[in-house]
């Protein structure tokens, strides 16, 4: 199993596991959906005996397994005991988002096939709580389209990502829309000069030079960026040493359109110049229109 990559995809029903497994299949993974947890170790061992023909495996293990799913933690401990390395990808979304998706698909919740969807969601969250705590990567798909989720999966598991010791996502967001659930580090930049109060800059974003010049013209902005970059640069080798494979740095302002976007772009460029694998994503930049801009 030394050269075999095993990804266990799990999470809440309706959070996007099917889309994730399709994307992993496109990346060359041998994929199995709804595998009973008790068979994970045996299946991985069989693939390891394929003489290199199957060296990337993705397994969807979730609540649909019924009583079998309750053995998931025991199965993971068995993998640890026999030395099979794995990554857990956990997908989740807000209650509101999940309820809407179930209504749109007209499918019942697996835990409440004849009851309220919301009750099923709450029960599933409770049953998955321990597994979520063991996850190596958590993706909140509430604000992601299928295309954006695919881009996130590719960034995490593509060949370019595998060659990097640490995948860094610099994420801008607006506090008015809530904290990013998958953030490792959160920085509040609402103390910086706000372009929103300049009429000519208000309709623009931190992707525009005029806004960037306005924000970075402040000595406070320049000093902050230099010092925060120094902190991140100091932390990166220590995260790698501890075995961390992904780092999400969230930078927030009020609306997620001006200051946070500017700082995320600047910080991302500085980290990329150090030959880090960096994805810059702006969660709320187009909240008043449509789409999410991303720079890789």
From TrEMBL:
<feature type="binding site">
    <location>
        <begin position="11"/>
        <end position="18"/>
    </location>
    <ligand>
        <name>ATP</name>
    </ligand>
</feature>
<feature type="binding site">
    <location>
        <begin position="62"/>
        <end position="65"/>
    </location>
    <ligand>
        <name>GTP</name>
    </ligand>
</feature>
<keyword id="KW-0547">Nucleotide-binding</keyword>
<dbReference type="Pfam" id="PF22740">
    <property type="entry name" value="PapZ_C"/>
</dbReference>
<dbReference type="GO" id="GO:0005524">
    <property type="term" value="F:ATP binding"/>
</dbReference>
<dbReference type="InterPro" id="IPR005337">
    <property type="entry name" value="RapZ-like"/>
</dbReference>
<dbReference type="InterPro" id="IPR053931">
    <property type="entry name" value="RapZ_C"/>
</dbReference>
<dbReference type="InterPro" id="IPR027417">
    <property type="entry name" value="P-loop_NTPase"/>
</dbReference>
<dbReference type="Pfam" id="PF03668">
    <property type="entry name" value="RapZ-like_N"/>
</dbReference>
<protein>
    <submittedName>
        <fullName>Uncharacterized protein</fullName>
    </submittedName>
</protein>
<feature type="domain" description="RapZ C-terminal">
    <location>
        <begin position="166"/>
        <end position="286"/>
    </location>
</feature>
<feature type="domain" description="RapZ-like N-terminal">
    <location>
        <begin position="5"/>
        <end position="159"/>
    </location>
</feature>
<keyword id="KW-0342">GTP-binding</keyword>
<dbReference type="InterPro" id="IPR053930">
    <property type="entry name" value="RapZ-like_N"/>
</dbReference>
<keyword id="KW-0067">ATP-binding</keyword>
<dbReference type="GO" id="GO:0005525">
    <property type="term" value="F:GTP binding"/>
</dbReference>
């Amino acid at each position: 199993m030394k050269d075999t990559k095993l990804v266990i995809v799990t999470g809440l029903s309706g959070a996007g596991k099917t889309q994730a497994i399709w994307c992993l299949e496109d990346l060359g993974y041998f994929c199995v959906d709804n595998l009973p947890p008790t068979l994970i170790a045996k299946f991985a061992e069989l693939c390891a005996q394929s003489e290199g023909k199957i060296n990337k495996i993705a397994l969807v293990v979730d609540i649909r397994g019924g009583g079998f799913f309750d053995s998931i933690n025991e199965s993971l401990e068995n993998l640890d005991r026999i030395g099979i390395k794995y990554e857990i990808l956990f997908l989740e979304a807000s209650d509101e988002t999940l309820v809407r998706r179930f209504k749109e698909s007209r499918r019942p919740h697996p835990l409440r096939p004849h009851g309220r969807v919301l009750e099923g969601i709450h029960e599933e969250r409770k049953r998955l709580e321990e597994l979520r705590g063991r996850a190596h990567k958590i993706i909140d798909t509430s604000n992601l389209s299928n295309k954006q989720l695919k881009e996130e999966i590719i960034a995490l598991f593509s060949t370019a990502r595998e060659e990097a010791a640490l995948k860094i996502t610099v994420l801008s967001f607006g506090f008015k829309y809530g904290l990013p659930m998958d953030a490792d580090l959160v920085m509040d930049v609402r103390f910086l000069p706000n372009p929103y109060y300049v009429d000519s800059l208000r309709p623009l974003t931190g992707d525009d030079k005029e806004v960037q010049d306005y924000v970075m013209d402040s000595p406070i902005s320049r000093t902050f960026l230099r010092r925060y970059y120094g902190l991140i640069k100091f932390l990166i080798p220590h995260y790698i040493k501890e075995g961390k494979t992904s780092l999400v740095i969230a930078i927030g302002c009020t609306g997620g359109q001006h200051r946070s976007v500017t700082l995320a772009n600047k910080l991302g460029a500085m980290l990329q110049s150090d030959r880090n694998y960096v994805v810059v994503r702006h969660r709320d930049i187009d909240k008043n229109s449509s789409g999410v801009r991303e720079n890789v």
